[in-house]
Amino acid sequence: MAEARPLDALNKARDKKIIVDLKNGKQFVGLLRAFDIHINIVMDDVEERVEGEVKRKIGTAFIRGDTIIMISPA
């Protein structure tokens, strides 16, 4: 069985809902549209959540890869 690489996992999550936790404590949930080798990501239909509650709706967002702690399927 072939080993899964991080970028392969992100590629499988493209056009699906993901949860992104950032170093500053913020959490964003939305559809993963694109990413690059630095894990910079573009998301659509983004919501910022605080303690599980939607704080604000952002729409389309670009998140710089070096600010990301975790990316998970929603």
Describe this structure in words.
This protein is mainly beta. The chain has a single domain (6-73), classed as SH3 type barrels (Roll). 11% of the residues lie in helices and 57% in strands. The protein has one helix at residues 6-13, and strands spanning 17-22, 27-35, 41-50, 53-63, 68-73. It has a five-stranded antiparallel beta sheet with strand order 4-3-2-1-5. Strand 1 and strand 2 (27-35) form a beta hairpin. The longest helix is centred in the first third of the chain and has 8 residues, at 6-13. The protein is globular, with a radius of gyration of 12 Å.
Alpha-beta classification: mainly beta
- Architecture, CATH level 2? Roll
Q: State the helical fraction.
A: 10-25%
- Read across the widest sheet, the strand sequence of neighbours is 4-3-2-1-5
Would you tell me which CATH topology applies? SH3 type barrels
How many separate structural domains? 1
Strand content: over 45%
Q: How would you sum up the major sheet? A: 5 strands, antiparallel
Shape: globular
Report low-confidence residues grouped into runs of 5 or more.
Answer: none
* Radius of gyration of CA atoms, rounded to a whole number: 12 Å
SSE order, one letter for each helix or strand: HEEEEE
CATH class group: Mainly Beta
Measure the end-to-end span: 26 Å
Number-wise, the strands total 5
Mean pLDDT: 93
**Secondary structure tally, helices:** 1
